Amino acid sequence: MGKHSYGVILDAGSSGTRVYVYRWKNAASARASASPDELDRLPKIHTDKKWRKKVHPGVSTFGSRPEDVGPEHLAELVEFALDIVPADEVANTPIFLLATAGMRLLPDEQRALVLDNVCGYFRENTGFQLPDCDLHVQVIPGETEGLYGWIAANYLLGGFDAPEDHAHGGGHHTYGFLDMGGASAQIAFAPNATETEKHAEDLKLLRLRKVNGENLEHKVFVTTWLGFGANEARRRYVEELLEAYPGSKELPDPCLPVGLMVTTSGEELDSDSPALIGNDPHLVGTGKFAECLKRTYPLLEKDVPCLDEPCLLNGIHTPAIDFNVNHFVGVSEYWHTTHEIFAMAHKDKAYDFQTYQKQVTELCSRGWDDIEEDIEDRKWGKKVDEKTVEEVCFKASWLINMLHDGIGVPRVGLETGKEISDGTNTTHSVIDNAKDRGFLDPFQAIDKIDGTEVSWTLGKMVLYASSQMPAAEEEEDKALAVGFGTNTPGLPDFQYPSIRLPSPTTNDTTATTQDWHSRLLSSSYSRRGPGILIFLLILALAAYLLCGRDRRATLLSKLRRSSSGPTKRPGGKPSTSLASKLFGSSSSSSGPAYERVLEAGGSRASDSDSDFELASLTSLDDPQRTGRTSGWATPANRALSPDFARGSPKHKGGGYFDVPAGASGAAGEQGLGITAFERGGLVGRTESREKLSAAGLGAGGGGRRSRTPGSGRAGKESVE
């Protein structure tokens, strides 16, 4: 393993899927070369604009043919990622596909089939690490998307690593996060101390881990407003226009430049378009932006009853926002709508509401023919096309209403925030010119920070990378897992970035065994089964050839007797086959189930106190066993369940592999569950003669003694 770790995330949106590749130093390398200041920070994530690629359309379009999502959609993105990740790091590199709005709209059955085929394609056609499909391939809710965005923004701005440089007052040093897509909008912020205490049950508890192994916790409020994305808001707006002008063919639209004609679905119409001949209604721009603001205001749904005060939009509860300490950054539509055409309204990063509204009003009041000439002359750059300018007047009015009348962001240039003392979201007006205050203003629209795109995928990878940092030595025994969940003790909804796989570089025997077991079952090893079988066959053949001619003859003779069934001995008792000696007789024979352990030397368990002794066979009805064991019996410790292996909140207070309360022995004390060797299982336990002797097994007397089920292996077995 090299000094760097990699991660691959596919953002499966409604219009397409974009792959991102990230890199960071693994724990050993980061700690070896880090300064004290760097040790006290989160892992440093690196990416590049050349490390992302997007393909169209979205995975949701494969709902009716999920078997094609791999070869027709994912293959190109996977190959792109494999060209970036070093070949010897692929098996250690996790891959995620996290879907958002488009996949949420699919029927449950289609959505499940698409996700299953995505996982199957990754496992069959890539060597990337994919230990759990439920964690790595899923549709994430809007709240999770917003939380990841909040992590990304604060990670890049320094709210986590340099709190002293971002003191907003009242001990507050993180930034609020606003995101708006086509279908929904999200908000995420850490309320002030008063609101945090008042609305504790509404917050998410987020836990990260620094390079030095120390935990970093934040309590964040996150919510999503479905239908409040720019495209869905426009759809609702057009529906209201149709209701306001029933039966009319030509609908005046103040949110379009003067003279622009479009269909109700937004397609531009020429003066000689055949669509104008029919009876279908169409929209004609009047360019009255002040009226546009008034018509889009009702879309905020401020009149919906609030059942849990306070609320912002659509009756959805939101703790009061104190804009003296809560400073927000906005991405996606907040950036595109304010910058693609009106970038000068944000000179030196200062969002000036007065300047922005003035520029939008001037543009939207112009004739469409004049605007088209500016587009052809690339007045706003080659990326701004007709569609962008057609939509910008409505989007600008929606953004202004969302920010200032919906969320309550003070209008910089006209007003500042008022300290919240009555539990409501409000602002008051004062005369104040916009200042170049950077990110200390109540709102800034951003796209990149220091050249890195502010994407929720970065937040997801920051969370994963920090989970790979081992806990500080003094906290290993009580280390809490990295992830997020409800800020209410006892609720089992904590979500983990992934299943933690122990480091293959550890010298701990137990960790190495567990690592081998986990990696063997993981997707990157699933196709190596034939090779392992061939290796075992070669090993068996070598042992057969080395055991000598006489022993080979004896072995073959016993195998022949075994295959031909039991034969009678002179005394009338059936002879015991080699299989029954090794694995126990299936009959209820009165003789011992295991006659001897090793053929060599003729040593029997009863001959010496120091010889091996096998445990008695546990009944199939034993609830601690999930299948009949082979002769190589093991302590009947409880097997790891999926929730248990992930460090489920059902077993709080330890790492990912803690055993449930009541497990006995050293393994239970140290937090590592050991499974019995089941039919089809992979892990067997044996003890050396010295350990068995030290435990007092087989001591004195002629009777056989078996190891007590549930006894654990001595020695520390610490797995984070």
TrEMBL record:
Residues where ATP binds: G182, A183, S184, A185, Q186
Keyword Repressor among record annotations: no
Database matches in Gene3D superfamilies: 3.30.420.40, Exopolyphosphatase. Domain 2 (3.30.420.150)
Stated name of the protein: Nucleoside diphosphatase
Domain of life of the organism encoding this protein: Eukaryota
Catalytic machinery residues: E145
Family: Belongs to the GDA1/CD39 NTPase family.
Transmembrane segments: 529-547
Pfam families documented for this protein: GDA1_CD39
A GO CC term attached to the entry: membrane
Organism from which the protein derives: Cladosporium halotolerans
Region (Disordered): 560-593, 617-652, 683-720
GO biological process: one example: UDP catabolic process
Entry keyword set: ATP-binding, Hydrolase, Membrane, Nucleotide-binding, Transmembrane, Transmembrane helix
Any one GO molecular-function label of the UniProt entry: ribonucleoside triphosphate phosphatase activity
Polar residues bias locations: 617-632
